[in-house]
Amino acid sequence: MEDSLELVPVARFVESSGDGLKYEYKAVNLVKGEQFSPAFSNLNPMGYVPVLVDGDIIISDSFAILMYLEERYPQNPLLPHDLQKKAINYQAASIVSSSIQPLQNLAVLKYIEEKVSPDEKIPWVQFHIGKGFTALEKLLNGYAGRYATGDEVFLADLFLAPQISAAISRFNVDMTQFPLLSRLNDAYNELSAFQDAMPEKQPDYPVVSKG
Amino acid sequence: MSADCFSSLRLYSWRYNSKLAGAAAAVAIADLWSLCKAWVLAQVQTRERIGASVEEPKKLQLYSYWRSSCSWRVRIALHLKGLKYEYKAVNLVKGEQFSPEFSNLNPIGYVPVLVDGDIVISDSFAILMYLEEKYPQNPLLPHDLQKKAINYQAASIVSSSIQPLQNLAKYIEEKVSPDEKVPWVQFHIGKGFTALEKLLNGYAGRYATGEEVFLADLFLAPQISAAISRFKVDMTQFPLLSRLNDAYNKLSAFQDTMPEKQPDAPVEYKG
């Protein structure tokens, strides 16, 4: 999953999670086009963030990064042992990264605004988020505990937290239709792993907007 | 061990303690050995009786639509791993994904869905990861962590950057213009293919990440095939992907599982 202007790569959440992995934050200003600079292009010719560098290993795409971290640093696992529950985590991640996020990114929204109509943008994004959230409510039914697939934070939560946050703060989605996701959002708001990783707390968050 | 065996142990132990003769101890041990042998034999016979009445493990079931790229990925994996399965056609055009029977199975209404006994999994990526863990023969991922990551990245480019946007073709046709549909699809496929050419540069061998078929190939093969046959993408701009496509066309794992050979492919498409 690549981000055009998303300032909340999913990987950031895992970086601040109980894994306890310290890292150097390297800001890439997507608005200024820094992803196309020679330095960054050398690192990642595709121009996507996030990118993780671990010695000689270079990985882009939040999902690929998470799977790498899971294997290389197995403390505080991101996936449950149970195969059905593990699959539910992958399914939730896919719904967010394939069915929702690509359709809400800025390039697509700009296209809708320009080619269909400015009035179509909000209904478009709310439709696709709503469709994905409806699917998630069904998927997680019977599996959710305090978090998406039980009482521990797993992969699904890492994808859900930023998505729900964006749905509320950027797209004004009416969350009353999604009681399970609303409850999960409340749980995420109480966890430092999620709160410390949020966009507004990052070094490159614009000074003018900082609260 | 059963209670009988232990009570014998205690009994013999007591008997041994109360007698001083070594011969009595030897007899006690021999008797104990006979008792334990009889117990073991009884266990084996019981298990044989149970084994004879156990049913054959249920076959895997795959709910699939002939033309779905996502379903094709899973069919390739099942072929590579030598796994037999029952093909359950879900006609997406007729809306069969919304039938009560399918909704019970997968309320989200997506294909593919894999059923393996009590386990029910939808989403091609989740299914592939499950198959990889449950049936590790013919692995779908390399051991090397960097190469493994390249496979995940390729899969993500297809499933997040290309396929969801390609699926909007009908919306674009209706809401923007019929003339805009093809440029839209070709733009997004082109963008994704350009990224893949860069990603795989230096990793590709006969296949996407070396000399063996891995996860990346399972995502690439259906995507490239659709790009060529359905969307008329000019592949000359993508030499690496063109070469990979030629390689896929020679493999039975890809050819035997192609959409046109599925039971639910319309007659006019059947290869």
UniProtKB/TrEMBL annotation, chain A:
Family per record: Belongs to the GST superfamily. Zeta family.
GO CC annotation, single: cytoplasm
Domain of life: Eukaryota
Domain (GST C-terminal): residue spans on this chain: 82-207
Matching CDD domains: GST_C_Zeta (cd03191)
MF GO annotations: glutathione transferase activity; maleylacetoacetate isomerase activity
Pfam families to which the protein is assigned, alphabetical: GST_N_3
Name recorded for this polypeptide: Glutathione transferase
Phylogenetic lineage: Eukaryota, Viridiplantae, Streptophyta, Embryophyta, Tracheophyta
Residues of the signal peptide: none
Domain GST N-terminal: 20-77
Stored SUPFAM superfamilies: GST C-terminal domain-like, Thioredoxin-like
GO-annotated biological processes: glutathione metabolic process; L-phenylalanine catabolic process
InterPro entries listed in its UniProt record: Glutathione-S-Trfase_C-like (IPR010987), Glutathione-S-Trfase_C_sf (IPR036282), Glutathione_S-Trfase (IPR040079), Glutathione_S-Trfase_N (IPR004045), GST_Zeta (IPR005955), GST_Zeta_C (IPR034330), Thioredoxin-like_sf (IPR036249)
TrEMBL record, chain B:
UniProt xrefs under InterPro entries: Glutathione-S-Trfase_C-like, Glutathione-S-Trfase_C_sf, Glutathione_S-Trfase, Glutathione_S-Trfase_N, GST_Zeta, GST_Zeta_C, GST_Zeta_N, Thioredoxin-like_sf
Stretches assigned to the GST C-terminal domain: 144-267
Ranges where the GST N-terminal domain occurs: 58-139
Domain of life: Eukaryota
Cellular component terms per the entry's GO annotation: cytoplasm
Catalytic activity from the UniProt record: RX + glutathione = an S-substituted glutathione + a halide anion + H(+)
A biological-process GO annotation: glutathione metabolic process
Keywords assigned by UniProt, alphabetized: Transferase
Stored NCBIfam families: maiA
Protein name (record): glutathione transferase
Organism: Liquidambar formosana
